[in-house]
Design brief:
Largest sheet of chain B: 10 strands, mixed
Distance between the termini of chain B: 71 Å
Helix content of chain A: over 70%
Structural class of chain B: alpha/beta
Radius of gyration of chain A: 22 Å
Oligomer: heterodimer
Radius of gyration of chain B: 23 Å
Distance between the termini of chain A: 41 Å
Shape of chain B: globular
Order of helices and strands of chain B: HHHEHEHEHEHEHEHEEEHHEH
CATH class of the largest domain in chain B: Alpha Beta
Order of helices and strands of chain A: HHHHHHHHEEHHHHHHHHHH
Strand order of the largest sheet of chain A: 1-2
Number of domains of chain A: 1
Number of helices of chain B: 12
Strand content of chain A: under 5%
Number of strands of chain A: 2
CATH topology of the largest domain in chain B: D-Maltodextrin-Binding Protein, domain 2
Chain lengths: 505, 339
């Protein structure tokens, strides 16, 4: 215990180095820019910036990515409030009350509410990161082949289910990812599979290339096929970006409620910030003492949505860091960043690499403060960026996609893979398939396969070995719940959004 | 307004480009201060041989930045610049189980400006598994840098196996599982060589990397495994039963060798050597051989590399080692593995 406290303290000391502080400021500012640009989501932003971190020390690299993540989730609220277009899907619920406030001439107050509640949501989510992550990492030591198999299956079912509108399409996307994950040397016998004599495929499709293609490049194609239109003018506003003491007090219970909701959603694989914001908004509405304000610009509505989506950030890191199960697309990208630094998710992050991990955690805490400061001071400037024309955005993102995928191995073959996945992602989105499920299946497929074949090898092919430990059973039950979750989610979404369709990208 | 926005995004891009080139940047800055010292050292170390690089030397590492090989290569490169007299730029060309980097090294101009690291026995396995089109003839050995000896280990609290003989006796009567770092990877080769020599049958469990291999052992899924000394340095939760060497290891005097217990009696482990593409002149080899020998004896290097199992071997010995490991790895295909 004392040792852990010491590690936490040392984490803060190393996080306060000049380089790390610059990383936080740069990351948050970049994240807010990405977030407030409609068309660029948090996952895409982190994927684009991932190659920047290759040459940084591991802790600084992760802090940059974490800062972009938090910044982007908050940044989405700026365009949601000012131009009624959520910058990222995570701010979809913010647009409801936020834009009403803008129409009432309270845009400054709405932005201040978004900033203040994002800060508290993010900060409080760090508590669970500090407490649950090391605990879960201990549990991960008990995960042998059979448990790893079920862990992969659990991740796949819940992801295919929760993140898709249709269970069949979700499962199809997952299956496609699984097929792609078989490319390369097989993990047990070392047999070459679908390599066609190409040595660069020996270690399988590079996940980072795949996700830059699926998330970022495909978005370029989607943007490019539309006629480039001028965006709505950002509302001019004159009121100060500040909250009074009474207002802060008024949103306090909402923030705490949304923190708990967002955090739990974050820890559960599958559901992400875009679902959390609606849940946070809905609970704010239900418990509010001023229900009549809702629909006409309620600050509690903005607070409920924005603290919930930022509370997801800390929670969603937990399963990724401890079990190697990224719960949503942003954490899948972050996991890519971790692996490129030579760090594998799992218990070693809290033993051998504890210094690095606690520096990252401390950085994550400090990032929230920078988000508050930069958000409060820079809202007016960021508001202008949200109107950036696609004509500028498209070539810039394309260049970043190509540079990013080339930088991984300094190899053109990765760029080709990225472009193939960009085209694949475009087609998938046209057919309403789920690109995030492909990436997650690409990560989880090998874990499951290794687990299943390893377990059967140890037991001499006796399938009973898969059903022996209590952990296996817990995961089996969770997987069954995962399969049926789309039905539950559908009911739930109808309830909170009143039938409005949720865009999961 | 739009202009500013365009400028801002353009700046982002420039930032990205800079970062891509950054892996080379620090190395380029560092030697500027050391250059004068390097010239002095260069004269007595190797310049008398008649060849010296006239620009930055590229050193290809076939694994990603931050990997074990990369870390040790960077330490060597940092201190070798003093003796080489030029910047040494580490280029990480990973992928294809190392074969991408080795293909690139084999194809490089043999002018002495490009050298690289060769990891044994992974390099040999990549030839056997036909991952690259190169052979050992496509490389010229310069020297050996690191040698890590394999060990047989069990859990520290496993009372069944107080020593190596008890493990063999148990394994002959019962099924045992040994986790490995991958199918036909170094620790699998070790486990198989030990089992063959002790005449027992076991089940191998490929985990893909050494960290997971040890987790599997500690979690009780595997009964024993083979790992390298550096992988278990400082660990108290495993017990070393024997080493794959011809004499007892200096820092483990109580651990018997497999040979003295009547089992596998050859050295087994992994080596990291410095090599050049085939076709480099003898002067080039002699220059680097002398420069790296001086580096590996440098007190500053030794202080920085206290956790690295540095083991200098000259060019001729290293060349023989590469051939020997190649013959050994190729020989494994016949009757070595279980069907």
């Amino acid at each position: 215990m004392l040792e852990t406290l010491q590690l936490m303290g040392q984490g803060f000391i190393s996080a306060l180095s000049i380089l790390n502080l610059l990383a936080m400021i740069g990351g948050v500012a970049l994240g807010i820019v990405i977030g407030c640009l409609p068309g660029l989501s948090a996952a895409m932003g982190v994927a684009l910036m991932l190659p920047l971190t290759f040459t940084m020390p591991a802790d600084t690299g992760l802090i940059v990515l974490g800062a972009i993540y938090c910044g982007a989730i908050f940044g989405g609220s700026i365009s949601a409030i000012l131009i009624h277009t959520p910058g990222t899907p995570a701010s979809a619920a913010t647009a409801i009350e936020g834009y009403q406030m803008t129409l009432n001439g309270q845009a400054g107050k709405a932005l201040a509410t978004a900033c203040w509640s994002s800060f508290w949501g993010g900060l409080l989510s760090c508590i669970s990161l500090y407490f649950f992550a090391p605990m879960l990492a201990q549990l991960a030591l008990k995960f042998m082949s059979a448990e790893k198999f079920w862990l992969g299956i659990f991740g796949l079912t819940i992801i295919a289910g929760v993140s898709s509108k249709s269970i069949v399409k979700g499962l199809m996307s997952g299956a496609l990812g699984l097929i792609i994950s078989t490319i390369g040397l097989d993990p047990i016998d070392g047999t070459k599979r679908f390599m066609f004599g190409q040595a660069f495929l020996a270690e399988g499709i590079n996940t980072t290339c795949a996700l830059i293609g699926l998330f970022s490049m495909s978005q370029v194609f989607i943007l490019a096929e539309k006629e480039i239109k001028k965006r709505a003018k950002a509302a001019k506003f004159s009121d100060r970006i500040a909250l009074t003491k009474e207002e802060r007090k008024k949103i306090r219970p909402t923030v705490i409620r949304s923190w708990i909701i967002g955090n739990i959603i974050g820890i559960l694989p599958g559901a992400g910030a875009s679902i959390a914001c609606f849940m946070g908004y809905n609970s704010a509405k239900q418990f509010s003492k001023h229900k009549e304000e809702f629909g006409h610009g309620a600050i509690e509505g903005v607070a409920g949505s924005e603290s919930a989506n930022n509370a997801v950030t800390g929670g969603s890191l937990i399963p990724m860091l401890t079990l190697g199960i990224p719960g949503e697309s942003v954490t899948a990208v972050l996991m890519g960043g971790l692996i490129i630094q030579g760090l594998a998710p799992g218990p070693e992050l809290f033993t051998k690499h504890a210094a690095m991990t606690y520096t990252f955690f401390a950085g994550f805490v400090l990032v929230q403060f920078f988000m508050l400061a930069i958000g409060m001071l820079g809202c007016r400037g960021f508001a202008q960026i949200s109107r950036l024309s696609d004509a500028i955005l498209i070539p810039c993102v394309t260049v970043l996609c190509v540079i990013g995928s080339y930088a991984i191995h300094r190899n053109m073959s990765d760029v080709i893979i990225m472009l193939i996945f960009g085209a694949l992602g475009y087609l998938m989105r046209k057919f309403d398939l789920n690109t995030a499920a492909v990436v997650l299946a690409l990560i989880l497929g090998p874990i499951s396969e290794k687990g299943l074949r390893g377990a059967l090898r140890v037991s001499d092919g006796d399938i009973a070995c898969l059903f022996q430990s209590p952990v296996s059973w817990v995961l089996i039950i969770l997987s069954i719940v995962g399969i049926f979750s789309p039905f539950l989610m559908e009911k739930f979404e109808k309830k909170v959004t009143g039938g409005e369709v949720l865009d999961e990208e | 307004m739009k202009k500013y926005l365009a400028l801002l995004l353009a700046l982002c891009m420039v930032f990205a480009l800079c970062a891509c080139g950054q892996s080379e940047a620090p190395a380029e800055e560092a030697p500027a201060e050391e250059a004068p010292a390097a010239e002095d050292a260069g004269t007595d170390a190797a310049a008398t041989e008649g060849w010296a690089p006239d620009g930055p030397v590229t050193m290809i590492v076939s694994y990603a930045a931050g990997n074990g090989t990369d870390v040790t290569a960077r330490i060597l490169a940092q201190y070798a610049e003093k003796y080489v007299g030029q910047t040494i730029v580490i280029e990480n060309v990973d992928g294809g189980s190392g074969s991408i980097g080795w293909s690139q090294l084999a194809a490089a101009e043999p002018d002495g400006m490009t050298i690289g690291f060769m990891n044994l026995p992974n390099f040999n396995s990549s030839i056997v598994n036909e991952l690259g089109t190169y052979t050992t003839d496509d490389f010229t050995a310069i020297c050996n840098h690191v040698t890590e000896t394999s060990l047989v280990i069990v859990r520290a609290d496993d009372e069944r196996f107080p020593d190596i003989d008890s493990l063999v006796a148990y394994a002959k009567e019962n099924k045992t599982v040994a986790s490995t770092n991958g199918a036909q990877a170094s620790n699998h080769i070790g486990a198989q060589a030990f089992a063959n020599s002790a005449d027992f049958v076991y089940t191998d469990l490929p985990m893909g990397n050494t960290a997971d291999e040890l987790t599997s052992l500690l979690g009780g899924e595997a009964d024993w495994c083979v790992a390298k000394a550096a992988d278990i340095a400082g660990r108290t939760d495993v017990r070393v039963l024997a080493s794959f060497s011809t004499e007892r290891l200096p820092d483990m005097p109580d651990v018997p060798t497999l040979g003295e217990k009547g089992y596998y009696d050859q050295w087994l482990g992994s080596s990291r050597c410095v090599v050049a593409p085939a076709g480099v002149s003898d002067e080039v080899v002699a220059f680097y051989e002398a420069a790296f020998k001086a580096t590996m004896e440098d007190p500053d290097y030794l202080a920085a590399a206290s956790e690295v199992a540095t083991d200098y071997k000259d060019a001729a010995t290293t060349a023989a080692l590469i051939e020997e490991q190649q013959a050994f790895t190729e020989g494994l295909s016949e009757g070595f593995w279980y069907e």
